[in-house]
Design goal:
This protein is an all-alpha fold. The chain is 66% helix and 0% strand. It starts with a helix and ends in a 29-residue tail after the last helix. This is Short transient receptor potential channel 4-associated protein.
Length: 771
């Protein structure tokens, strides 16, 4: 009986505590009744505190609320906030180190209690109160008080995603935070909180709405500007919807029809470009040397603040690894200096911290520049980057910072896969992506060379008795690389030393390929051939054992650009692939995934077509008779097999920017067949293949639907059509004519797809095209 009596009151207290929490939460949701714990009496809160394990947080919030009026004693407010902060900071630190568990309420009870009893809303009120009154003679909040308020809010965001989303939904608070960034003493805490908030906003913020944005950005020092780039990256990049269906060309075309106005990210990019000196300062940040950055002493003072802005554990691990490597190297050079006092680790750590500090800055800056470089204002950005000598500056940093050592231990990942890369790996990938964007279909690509290399290109053209490329002639030599090597040549050197499974191989190949893309330049190809690039690519495809589909695809694409229309490349290919075993290995790699290799297949077919028209050249005749690759592709049955597979692996619903090349390659096969008056032969072969496989009408109907989509997609896109024409050297009018001939509804035409589909199987799958 006594036991029952002891249990009764305890149950009552627990139920009472639960009722209080339920009432508060219900009030917050419904807007009626209790909406924050500070509306309850302090006596009641103290009575329930011990049993509920609130650690006095509701009582502290009650005191904070009572003392936080406009003319209150700010020192008292500050002391209460610091007391609360001690409970929350430990939870936030624990939460980060435990990799952000999902059960937030149970793992962060103090933070949950703080938010439930109105702590988050109260801190926002305290911060914003001076902006909501016309009174001028109120006490001014100290920088330390503002920093502590921001830190508490950030800790709450770390532990509870709901807090972050709630703050993100308040446009007034978000805009207010940007005004705090003008104060250098509160900048880092503000930037940290803004970055977290913008990362969960449903609607992208409009930079034009930030009060006095140009003057704000111009007031930043270089370190602040670099950190601000972390925030900008969220505002100038379209959010990834994480739904593959949204990335299909069908969906993108439909979206473009409904969204005729520029997107928010595009508007934000324009806003940034309109800020005087913005791009110039980013170029200076991207190219400055470590010795030009802030000293080690100021870095150590800043470290306490900025570590929260970065992936702290990852950065610290990298710092220690770099310091250890420096120590090991120094120990090898000075084996007698082994005492703790003269330890190389002790002396090298600040320099290593400076290097990673600078690398992290440059990662953010390069990302912003890269996004701007592929945006609608590309030509304007290109002119600025050239004018402010970004490329020569990066060239001067290449050996000492960008690729100062081989990074051998990192996880291979695809180009679209998220991963926790170390700062150095992220830096290298962003650098390579920037080079890719800079060179791609733009005449400024020759800025990647130095004067001697430009002269070499001119000499190649002169020797071949062909005119120099106009872009090469027009290159401003005041803006090119200096030193013994240009940036492209330096990249080739490290590319050939990269381990077989390195994820850098993908980006390196993409960057070099972009230099070759566009109208084919014989001089550019020979320049790279002379540096052993073709042999390196073939080694990677045939002999290295590389199994990464991403890396192989990038090498296939690069090989295609390097070999297209170039008789020297095919001679070199035949010299390297000098056995049947090597050739079969090469073809196995190609046939294992035509989505990855079809660009190379297209280049081979186009080259073969050109060579067959140049049989008066002895060198061409020799290569045509000896090259195993050309001999394979000249056989119609092999082309038909490739055509069948290309048409069979795609349909309108699955077309993306990645695999639409399969459709264009199949069109190249048929355009060349049409030139040779063999189009009906190919179409009839496809029909026979259908019946052999026992699904009559499916293949040809699918191809018919694909071509209908092709007309819709390309006839409204000038850039895409120009790229097709430049890369194939086939006039776009001939592309359009061939598609029209194939889609002709006249069933008596031997060049129309409809002629090869029996009446009973017409219009299979046509409904899907209307989606």
């Amino acid at each position: 009986m006594a036991t029952t009596e002891r249990l009764g009151p305890s149950r009552t207290r627990r139920n009472s505590n639960k009722n209080i929490l339920t009432r508060i939460r219900h009030g917050q949701i419904s807007g009626g009744g209790l909406s924050r714990g500070t509306e309850m009496s302090e006596a009641l809160l103290q009575e329930r505190d011990h049993q509920a394990k609130w650690h006095g947080i509701p009582v502290m919030l009650q005191r904070l609320y009572d003392s936080s009026h406009l003319n209150s004693d700010l020192s008292q407010i500050h002391s209460i906030i610091k007391e609360v902060a001690s409970f929350l900071s430990m939870e936030a630190m624990s939460f980060v180190t435990e990799e952000r568990r999902t059960a937030q309420e149970s793992t962060s009870p103090n933070t949950y209690t703080f938010d439930l009893f109105g702590g988050v809303d109260l801190l926002v009120e305290i911060l914003m109160r001076p902006t909501l009154t016309t009174q001028t003679n109120f006490p001014k909040m100290s920088d330390d008080l503002v920093k502590d308020c921001l830190s508490v809010l950030y800790n709450c965001c770390i532990c509870m995603e709901g807090v972050t989303k709630s703050l993100a939904s308040r446009d007034d608070f978000v805009m207010f935070l940007f005004t705090l960034m003008s104060n250098k003493k509160t900048f880092l805490q503000t930037a940290t909180l803004i970055e977290d908030i913008l990362g969960v906003r449903k609607e992208m913020i409009q930079l034009e709405g930030i009060p006095n944005l140009p003057s704000l950005v111009q007031s930043f020092n270089q370190q602040q500007l670099a950190n601000f780039c972390r925030i900008l990256s969220v505002t100038i990049t379209e959010p990834d919807l994480g739904n593959d269906d949204k990335h299909t060309l069908l969906a993108k075309n439909a979206q473009q029809k409904t969204n005729l106005c520029p997107s928010h990210s595009e508007v934000n990019q324009v806003a940034l470009l309109n800020i005087p000196g913005f791009i110039e300062r980013l170029c200076k940040l991207a190219t400055r040397k470590v010795s030009e950055a802030s000293g080690a002493s100021s870095l150590l003072l800043e470290l306490q603040d900025w570590y929260t802005l970065l992936d702290n554990a990852l950065v610290l691990d990298t710092l220690m690894q770099m310091a250890t490597e420096d120590a090991e190297q120094s120990s090898t050079e000075s084996p007698d200096e082994s005492s703790l006092v003269t330890s190389p680790l002790r002396h090298s750590l600040p320099q290593s911290m400076k290097i990673v500090h600078e690398i992290m800055y440059k990662v953010e800056v390069l990302y912003v520049l890269c996004v701007l470089l592929i945006g609608r204002q590309r030509n304007q950005v290109h002119r600025m980057l050239a004018e402010f000598k970004l490329i020569p500056g990066l060239n001067n940093l290449f050996d000492k910072l960008i690729w100062r050592k081989q990074t051998s231990t990192h996880v291979l990942h695809g180009q679209n896969q998220n991963c926790d890369c170390s700062p150095e790996i992220s830096f290298k990938i962003h650098f390579l992506r920037l080079l890719q964007s800079f060179s791609d279909h733009h005449e400024n690509k020759y800025l990647l060379l130095n004067a001697q290399e430009l002269n070499e290109l001119s000499a190649i053209s002169l020797k071949a008795n062909i005119p120099e490329v106009e872009a090469l002639v027009n290159t401003d030599r005041n803006l090119i690389c200096d030193g013994k090597k240009g940036l492209l040549t330096r990249l080739l050197s490290v590319m050939k030393k990269e381990p077989a499974e390195s994820s850098f191989r993908f980006w390196q190949a993409r960057a070099v390929e972009s230099f070759l893309r566009g109208s084919t330049s014989y001089a550019d190809q020979v320049f790279l051939l002379k540096r052993g690039l073709l042999e390196h690519i073939l080694f990677c495809i045939i002999d290295s054992g590389c199994k990464s589909r991403d890396v192989l695809q990038s090498y296939f694409d690069l090989l295609g650009e390097l070999m297209k229309f170039n008789i020297d490349s095919f001679k070199r290919f035949n010299k390297y692939v000098n056995t049947e075993e090597k050739f079969q290995t090469f073809m196995t790699q190609i046939n294992s995934s035509l989505v990855d290799s079809n660009m190379l297949v297209r280049c081979i077919i186009l080259s073969l077509d050109r060579f067959e028209s140049q049989t008066d050249d002895v060198r061409v005749v020799e290569v045509l008779s000896e090259c195993s690759l050309l001999s394979y592709m000249v056989r119609v049955e092999n082309r038909l097999t490739i055509l069948f597979r290309l048409v069979n692996i795609i349909n309108v619903q699955t077309l993306t920017q990645e695999n639409v090349s399969c459709l264009n390659t199949s069109l190249v096969v048929l355009m060349l067949a049409r030139r040779q008056s063999k189009l009906s032969l190919y179409l009839n072969a496809l029909r026979e293949k259908e019946y052999t496989e026992k699904y009559p009408g499916c293949l040809l109907n699918n191809f018919h639907n694909l071509l209908c989509f092709w007309q819709r997609h390309y006839l409204n896109k000038d850039k895409d059509s120009t790229c097709l024409e430049n890369s194939s050297c086939i006039l776009f009018t001939y592309w359009k004519e061939t598609v029209s001939v194939l889609l002709d509804s006249d069933r008596t035409s031997l060049c129309a797809i409809a002629s090869y589909i029996d009446e009973a199987y017409m219009d299979l799958g046509r409904d899907f095209l209307e989606v």
